[in-house]
Amino acid sequence: MLEAAGSGHSAGPLGLADIFGALYFNILSLDSKNPNWEERDIIFLSNGHCVPVQYAAMAEAGFFDKDELLTLRKFGSRLQGHPERERLPGLENTSGPLGSGLSQAAGYAYSMQYIDDIKHRWVYVVLGDGELNEGNIWEAAMFAGKNKLSQLIGIIDRNNIQIDGNTEDVMPLEDLKGKWESFGWHVIEIDGHNIESIIDAASMGRAITNRPTMIIAHTIPGKGVDFMEYDYRWHGMPPGLNEVSGAPAKADQARIAIEKLRTLNGKITHEGQGV
Amino acid sequence: MSHYPLDPDLFTDKVKLEPNRAGFGRGLKAAGEANEAVVALCADLTESTQMHLFRDAFPHRFIEIGVAEQNLVTVAAGMARAGKIPFTSSYAAFSPGRNWEQIRTTISLNNQPVKIIGSHAGLYTGADGATHQMLEDIALMRVLPNMVVIAPGDSLEAEKATKLVAENGTPTYMRMAREKIPVFSTDESPFEIGKAYVLRDGHDISLMGTGTMTYQLLAAANILAENGIDAEVVHVPTIKPLDEGTIITSARKTGRVVTAEEAQIAGGFGSAVAELLSEQLPTPVKRLGMQDRFGESGKPAELFEYFGLTPEKIAETVKEFIDNTSQYHREY
Q1: Was domain B17-182 assigned CATH 1.10.286.20?
Q2: Does the pLDDT at position B189 exceed 90?
Q3: Which value does ipTM take for this structure?
Q4: Which residues of A touch B71 (CB under 8 A)?
Q5: In what order do the strands lie in the sheet with B257-264?
Q6: Domain that residue A11 falls in
Q7: Residues of B in contact with A42 (CB under 8 A)
Q8: Which of A139, A145, A125 is nearest to A47 (CA)?
Q9: How large is the average pLDDT for residues A259-272?
Q10: How far A171 CA lies from chain B's nearest CA (Å)?
Q11: Which CATH fold topology does B197-324 show?
Q12: Residue A145 is assigned to a structural domain of this protein
């Protein structure tokens, strides 16, 4: 997808592949043929630049034909470079500028919990770790903590990279668990590449009824593509560039990266089969 | 052609004085009674913005956000996705002043029917000084696709507008002023989103005002009449979408236009009128408002005098403009 698009972010989406696989094939209650199904769970993507992995998961889950994935970032495509709700059924929000997804998820969760008295539906939101630099995030953290939004479950992609370098060099986030706990959240730290851990953590989050849950998912940026793993330089680059030292030839990069992304790191072995 | 009833007590000692935000408060409560989907969010200014009427009537649909304007509008965007009609309020300097990007992405581009109420806009914020006198909000909000922009002329109109905005299904910005101002409209005066109204017929010049400036123009027209100048006064509460027909008709009739707003003239209401006329009916336009500078502390009356926005100052400016500008007619 990214190779065909010629631009976009590689590392984050690859690192989130296991999480989105778990979300779309186990955790979320969704109907791909009826994206606005009233009983659905809600998934907000706050770090909109990682939307390629959401598009891939949605296509695998049957929201649209997989051939459409190659239109990513192209003129006329429903798959905009950053997600736009009105363009693609199944998207709940429009994002790209960082830091605003948690507030929207909190607003939805507040409506369910305090106004509409809706139980047994949950609002999930995927956040990047770099975007936790944004003040808007901590405004939302206070709001959700104050209101004990127990149907709100956040997942932080803790991959330790952002555009200018490693997160602890650019603007340190640790003690990250302690920060969220001090804002009144239940915090679960997991291996973000262990499907069972992801599913278990979401299940735990749904069982916590007196506060919101934040899952800190430790992930490897560029996961599954050895030359990209751990390297912040792949944050904002598509496969197909040779500018990063040690990278394979352009044609190989694209083939490897696309294969990994389309199969959610090998978790999907053939058409239509989930994790 | 004018069917807009003005309050008969206008320009008498009995004229009713009330801040626009009071009308908003009543309108929001009424909107809440009419539609259960209406919710209200405030950033620690609940009584200042007059949301307390709604809060007291519908406590479970009122959300206190605290001093966090970015969160204010983004929580509202999420609630809109959940089917609500959220009204958000703060001072205009903070919302949309501080949180413009969040409004752009999560409300305007996301096309959610969130209502952004910017209170304490303009020079009427007085003593608080330049930091709190929001003068750039019209320009900021007018450039956003999907966004409706309204500056009610008085409290009665603010009340009517609030009720309609609750049901218009689209992102909307409304600006409110702090101080009591004369109520020129009546219960029978029309208000529709997207309509401008001729309050006074005239042939020599069109005075077009939005928000609190319409009253100043009506008073200026009285002074001009004493000087033999027959001014038409057009009230334009909806800045976007602009009522192009009414504005062009008036400009064609009088051949000269003066606009007035309690805001920066760059990118604001006067700019919107000038853009329209320059493309469709090139007409001499004079824009009154803030001329690329900030305000400062003072009583509103002192500030209006200093910045040339009192009826007397406006009348002087209009006379000069007429003296120095030939009347444009398409049929010349």
Answers
A1: no
A2: yes
A3: 0.93
A4: 103, 136, 139-140, 142-143
A5: B197-200, B231-235, B205-209, B257-264, B285-290
A6: 2-262
A7: 81
A8: A125
A9: 59
A10: 21
A11: Rossmann fold (3.40.50)
A12: yes
